[in-house]
Amino acid sequence: MHASPALRRAVLAFVAIALLPFCLHKVASGGNQSEFFALLKKSLSGNALSDWASKPESLFCNYTGIVCDGAGDAVEMNLSGWSLSGEFPDGICEYLPRLRVLRLGENQFRGGGKFLTSIVNCSHLEELSLYKLYLPGRVPDLSPMGSLRVMDLSYNLFTGAFPMSVFELTNLEELNFNENGGFDLWELPENVSRMNKLQYLILTTCMLQGQIPKSIGSLTSLVDLELSGNYLSGEIPGELGMLRNLKLLELYYNEFTGGIPESLGNLTELRDLDMSVNQLRGSIPESICKLPNLEALQLYNNSLSGEIPSTLGDLTTLSILSLYDNLLSGEIPRNLGKFSGMVLLDISENRFSGPLPAEVCRSGKLRYYLVLQNSFTGEIPSVYADCPTLLRFRVNNNNLTGEIPEGILGLPHTSIIDLSYNNLSGPIARSIGNAKNLSELFMQNNNILGSLPPEISSAVNLVKIDLSRNKLSGPIPSEIGNLRKLNLLLLQSNRFESSIPDSISSLKSLNVLDISDNHLMGKIPESLCALLPNSINFSSNLLAGPIPPCLVKGGLAESFLGNPHLCVSVYLNSSDKNFPICPQSYDRKRVNSVWVIGISSAVIIFGFLLFLKRRCSQVRPGKEEQEMLSPSFFFYDVKNFHRINFDHREILQAMVNKNIVGKGGSGTVYRIEMKGGEVLAVKKLWSRSTKDCGNRFSEDNLVLNRELKTEARGGKDSTTTVIAGTYGYLAPEYAYSSKANTKCDVYSFGVVLMELITGKKPVEQEFGENKNIIYWISTKVDTKEGTLQLLDKRISDSFGEDMIGVLRIAIRCTYSSPALRPTMNEVVQLLTEANPCKLNTCKSLEKAK
Fold first, then answer.
1. CA 79/CA 45 separation, integer angstroms
2. Which domain of life is it from (predicted)?
3. What angle do CA 781, 785, 787 make, to 5 degrees?
4. 3-class SS at 113?
């Protein structure tokens, strides 16, 4: 039976009418979505959008990062990590109403709170990831987003009240507000128990205070609970033991008190437990040490006491144990590491005793072994030498005895070996030449015997060596000059003999050298002047002959006390008088050479001055004397520590050969006694032209560069491992002496001045590995352009010349030799004189505003 044409037309009309709304929706929806993607491409920029640029907006479903459903609607947008910049368009869900997943992390969007407010209206959204956008502003009410399962707003710059509305989103499975330190202080509400689907609760460093509510025990789906870096206080609730699915529990960096709940032993799925840096007391519960899946236990920096339960050594999964800085005592479980692959063991700064655990590296995976500052006894287990994965090995400040196992010093990947402050004996093994990655070797305050093997020169990455206060003997090997990265060499209080090797002068990165209190003989090599003005100490030896003048002028004469056969050529400082004047028999040939050079130089200078006089007389007859005494005849700059009111003419008249006390590449230094009895040291700086003041900047840079190059050679802070302190600020003498003085403060202040002038931190990645701000500045001041690059661009246009002046003061403050640094009173005086406002700079700035 066939339908009539009229019936067919009626059916088609009905179908068309029924499908019309759907078709209209598709046209409108598709048009709106295309419009949004056109707007998105216009608003944002970045290389990752190149794929989009080659396709029309109507084909948005083919764009990278976009997923559409069967109806052609965009349901997922993933632009995470694209490094896009610009302002993200408002009203995304008005254009994309069926959007379920929005991932925009790790971009540079503008808009802040406004941007977030436009997303709140996405009521169908199930996943929202905005991590590392660093969005500022307040977080709006989030309650309309009831469909959300995942919310990641970590690493932003939100301010104001924490959005408590988030605890109304009972469908959430993951909530992450990690690293949002701009919120006002807030507390976890009791109704957090309503979020019974929650698996990940990450509220690290987001200004959380108060106590953890006991109701948190109802969140039995939790797998990850991270509340670190906050202001939580009170006792840790035992109800946490009800979270039987928990694998990660991090409560470090808070203010918790009391003990560790025994109930945490119920967390049989727990992999990682970290309660470090709190105020916890009592013992470590044995129940925790039986957790079958525990991989990392970190309880450092508390006040825990008692012994480590022996059951901890039976764990088969433990790889990280960090308990340092507590009051723990007793012996370490003998089986520790026998059944598990230990990677890190740090039990430093406790009261442990007995032998070192011998099984800790049985798996061959141990990388960090840190047991310093305890009371361990016995010998270092020889099996440690079979642990090639070790990166750091520190057993210092214990009561260890016996010889050092030969293979330990030759471990191929170890960067730090610290055996100091024990009772170890025996020689230094020649295998140390195999330590190709070793950068720091500390063995001071032991009973190490024998010679320093020349093979140490093969450990070419060594930066710090401290072998002081041992019983080492024989010569200092000349091969030590091959350690070109070395910036700390401490060999004092040993029995070294023979002469000082000339090769030490090759250590251009050396900041601190101490070979005092030995049996060294012979002369001091003049080549050591290349190390100036670093901290050196050669005192209490058997050295003889003249102290090189360069070292005397550097103010380092005190570094040679206790050598009764040393002498000086001339007294330049008060400390020099501790030594006799050298007899004329020393280096008579050198004296004759100096006379020849001096007379030749005088003839040349006299001829040059005669030429200038004759030439000037043709231009200005009768004014030779005025020209010779004019401050513009020589290019000079007065460098003074105090305000002076001396007559420049009197100073210039006294700048004659008999008053010369030294010469350098930048000019000549004169000792001038004024009519009033004052004694001055004046340095005359030579320029290429007597008339061209345009060279002043470049000449000043050269002086600045010379002063700084000698200070920052190598540019490495030599103190950070030897003593505790802030990296980059400590004076180098801290490396060999714990005595603080005002010159140490001057050094630190100089670093602060450099920070202010450059806008940089004392240590930044751009300076290079093991380099600091002093070294970095030294690489820039060769040219005018380089010096300008040093200055903080935010203020250099207005204060450029003044900043250069302050930079000179900073350099004087950071001399490695304390004797060369000014006092703080002098620094204050210098800064007062360098005040830019005295030059009306500040007034001109005010007018410009």
1. 12
2. Eukaryota
3. 35
4. helix
Q: Cα–Cα distance between 165 and 524 in angstroms, integer?
A: 76
**Helices 796-813 and 696-712, packing angle to 10 deg:** 40
Per the model's pLDDT, the better-predicted residue between 224 and 7 turns out to be 224
DSSP at 777: H
Taking the C-alpha atoms of residue 724 and residue 736, their distance in angstroms, rounded to an integer, is 13
SS3 label, residue 43: helix
Handedness of CA 90, 95, 101, 107 (dihedral sign): negative
Q: How far is residue 817's CA from residue 549's CA, in Å, rounded to a whole number?
A: 16
Distance CA 714, CA 512 (A): 11
Q: Are 231 and 185 in contact (CB under 8 A)?
A: yes
Burial 58-77 (b: 16+ CB within 10 A, else e): eebbebeebebeeeebbbbb
Q: What is the pLDDT of residues 706-724, one digit of tens each?
A: 333 333 333 333 233 333 3
Strand order in the sheet with 565-567: 521-522, 542-546, 565-567
Structural contact between residues 174 and 103, judged by C-beta atoms closer than 8 angstroms: no
CA–CA dist 79, 59 (Å, integer): 17
Q: CA–CA separation, 122 vs 148, rounded Å?
A: 10
The residue among 283, 289, 287 whose CA lies nearest residue 329 is: 283
Q: Which of 336, 341, 340 is nearest to 355 (CA)?
A: 336
Residue 771 CB neighbours (<10 A): 20
CA 539/CA 557 separation, integer angstroms: 10
Give the β-pairing of 231-235 and 85-87. unpaired
pLDDT of residue 604: 46
d(CA 571, CA 549): 10
For the entire predicted model, the pTM comes to 0.69
In degrees and rounded to multiples of 5, residue 828 shows phi and psi of -60, -40
Best mean pLDDT range from 527-531, 560-564, 599-603: 560-564
d(CA 1, CA 122) in angstroms, rounded, equals 53
**Secondary structure of residue 37 in the 3-state scheme:** helix
Q: Is the pLDDT of residue 435 over 90?
A: yes
Give the span between the Cα atoms of 432 and 408, in whole angstroms. Answer: 8
pLDDT at position 647 is 54
Helix/strand/coil for 234: strand
- What is the Cα–Cα distance from 406 to 384, expressed in whole angstroms? 10
For residue 623, the model assigns a pLDDT of 30
pLDDT of residue 816: 67
Instruction: Please give the DSSP secondary-structure letter assigned to residue 217.
Output: G
| C-alpha to C-alpha distance for 268 and 246, rounded to whole angstroms | 8
3-state secondary structure string across 420-436: CCCEEEECCCHHHHHCC
What does the alpha-carbon distance between residue 217 and residue 233 come to, in Å, rounded to a whole number?
A: 17
Provide the mean pLDDT of the chain.
Answer: 79
Task: Indicate the burial class of 497 (C-beta count within 10 angstroms; 0-12, 13-18, 19 or more).
Answer: middle
With 0-12 / 13-18 / 19 or more C-beta atoms within 10 angstroms meaning exposed / middle / buried, residue 4 is: exposed
Confidence class for position 613, pLDDT limits 50, 70, 90: very low
Distance from CA of residue 707 to its chain's centroid? 25
What sign does the CA torsion over 421, 426, 430, 431 have?
negative
Q: Which residues contact 730 (CB under 8 A, 6 or more apart)?
A: 717, 719, 720, 723, 744, 747, 748
Q: Is the pLDDT of residue 246 over 60?
A: yes
Residue 688's pLDDT band (boundaries 50, 70, 90)? very low
DSSP type of residue 626: H
Contacts of 208 (CB under 8 A, 6+ apart): 185, 186, 187, 188, 227, 230, 231, 232
Q: In this structure, what token pair is assigned to residue 656?
A: 């004659």
Nearest-5° Cα angle at 593, 587 to 595: 110
Q: Could you tell me if 517 and 543 are in contact, meaning their C-beta atoms sit under 8 angstroms apart?
A: no
Amino acid identity of residue 297, one-letter, is L
Residue 499 token pair: 């002469």
